[in-house]
Structures are given as structure tokens and as C-alpha cells.
Amino acid sequence: xxxxxxxxxxxxxxxxxxxxxxxxxxxxxxxxxxxxxxxxxxxxxxxxxxxxxxxxxxxxxxxxxxxxxxxxxxxxxxxxxxxxxxxxxxxxxxxxxxxxxxxxxxxxxxxxxxxxxxxxxxxxxxxxxxxxxxxxxxxxxxxxxxxxxxxxxxxxxxxxxxxxxxxxxxxxxxxxxxxxxxxxxxxxxxxxxxxxxxxxxxxxxxxxxxxxxxxxxxxxxxxxxx
Length: 226
Hints:
It is a single chain. The chain is mainly alpha-helical. The chain contains two helices and no strands. 96% of the residues lie in helices and 0% in strands. The longest helix is centred in the N-terminal third of the chain and has 109 residues, at 5-113. It is rod-shaped and about 165 Å long.
């Protein structure tokens, strides 16, 4: 019966080595699962960050579109003011020419016909008033145009700031997207790793059971021999 002893010792050593390997693989698997949980949480957070950043980007794009619309309205207003200015300048120029001609004619009448100088003077002062009125109207439109130009500069500056924000937000989205891709790739590898560890553990536990059964039968055989 003594010749079975080495076999029992050998199987016991094999069982010990197996159990040590099982323990090591289980520790590795637990570590991988902990890491997987942490990474999955990180991935969830990055998904939320992407959703937030996308929302902010959409809001910036909407603001840029609104600014572009306002700028177009402003340009239309400025064009109509410009046209009004041109038309007022033309009216004033016509009036000045007319006043000049009338003034010449009135002086001639005065010289030739000795008409009432008071009436002629009144006509000329009316033209003077008319010229002042149109000059004031021109000044008003010119001031309005200056105001619109200043406003356009402000709108352009705000649009430039928004476009800068949009570029920064797109870069941020790109970075979060890259981070997410890397995390997804690590998670896929970890899942693969855990899966192969579980396969290995399954095989190891089967080997462990087989050796335990073998040791039991060897021990029983030894007991019967003695």
C-alpha cells in the first residue's frame, strides 16, 4: 500500500498549487471588476458632460443665429436711413438752387419794378427757414446713422465673442468625445479580461474538484489496504 503515498503527496501539491492559482485569479478578477465599475461610472459622467456640452453648444449656435438676424435688421434700417439721408440732401440741394434763383429774380424785380422790399425779404427769410429745417433733418439722420454704426460694431464684437465660445465648446466636446472613446476601449478590454478570468476559474474549479475526488478515492484505497 505504500506505493500510493507519493501519488497522494503529488496530488496534494497539485491541489495546493491549483488553489493558490484560483485565489490569484479571483483577486485579479475582483480588481478588474472594481476598475470596471469605476470606469463605467466615469463613462456615465462623460455621457452627461457630452449632453451638457452639446446643449450649451446648441444655445451658443442659436445666439449666433439671433445675432446674425439682428445684424441683418440693423443693416436694413441703416440702408433705409441712408436712402432718407440721400433724399434729404437732394431736396436741400434743389431748394438751395431754387432759393438762389429766386434771390436773383427778387433782386431784379426790386431794381426794375421797385416792388415792396418787405415782401421780398419775407420770401427770402422763408427760404432761410426752409433750409435750416432741412439741414436739421439731415443732421438728425446723420446722427442716427452714427448710432447704427456704433450698434453694428457692438453686434459684430458680440458675434465674434460667441463664435470664439462656439469654437471652445466644440473643442471641449471633441476632448470629452476622445476621452469617452478611450474609456469605452478600456472597458471593452476589461470585460474581455474578466470573461477570460471567469473561463479560467471555471476550468480551475473543475480541476480542483477532480483532484479532490481523486484524493478521496486514493485515501479510501489506502484505508482499505491498511
